Amino acid sequence: MKKLLLVAVLAVMGISANAQELRFGPKAGYSMSTLKYKDNSGSASTDPLHTFYVGGLVEYKISDKFGVQGEILYSQLGGKITESVEDEDGFFKIQNKMTFGTLMVPVSAKYFITEGLSVSAGASFGYILSAKSKTVGDLGLGGIVPGLEIGGSDESDIKDQTNKLNIAPFVGAEYMLENGLFFDARYNMGISNLAKDPMDGEKTTNSFLQIGVGFKFGGN
């Protein structure tokens, strides 16, 4: 009986110790996303799309120096292209914006330089829930009729033309205060081809920078 009680006490102590290494909480922040197009004739990148992300995380600290982290995030990713021509008679500007509503599951290994400062490496596995392309045209006739502008927009659903999986390896860093508040930054390099039916070596990838803030519950 005494042996059984001792085993039970040690098991409870082990569970408590493990629980102290588990942290979880919300996070949100800023995303800067770009698309890169490549085919047999060359490559080009879009202007950045500035959006946000929101979600939550679970972190398990294996030792004083190493840990693992999993997250679930949602973000609007993509990129935009703007072309404009201006002369003494007026201007013409057209902008195309591609937006991918993406549910992401980032998984990373972490190394703790100090108790609060860590670096990480891993991969984000994204599933594209929606894909849209919006083109806006603006014809300014300021030189002919001051103040008069002719404009229009066109939005189309391109989900059927887009692969749903967006895998992006990443590296990042995080600093956490003693109260659980943390700040992090991460660069994700897209490697998946988002073009569903590529021709002539066509490849479209999505890379993005994330800067965020969050709070972790649990731990010591």
From TrEMBL:
It comes from the Bacteria. Residues 1-19 form the signal peptide. It holds the Pfam family OMP_b-brl_2. Keywords: Signal. Transmembrane segments: none annotated. Residues 18-194 form the Outer membrane protein beta-barrel domain. This is Outer membrane protein beta-barrel domain-containing protein.
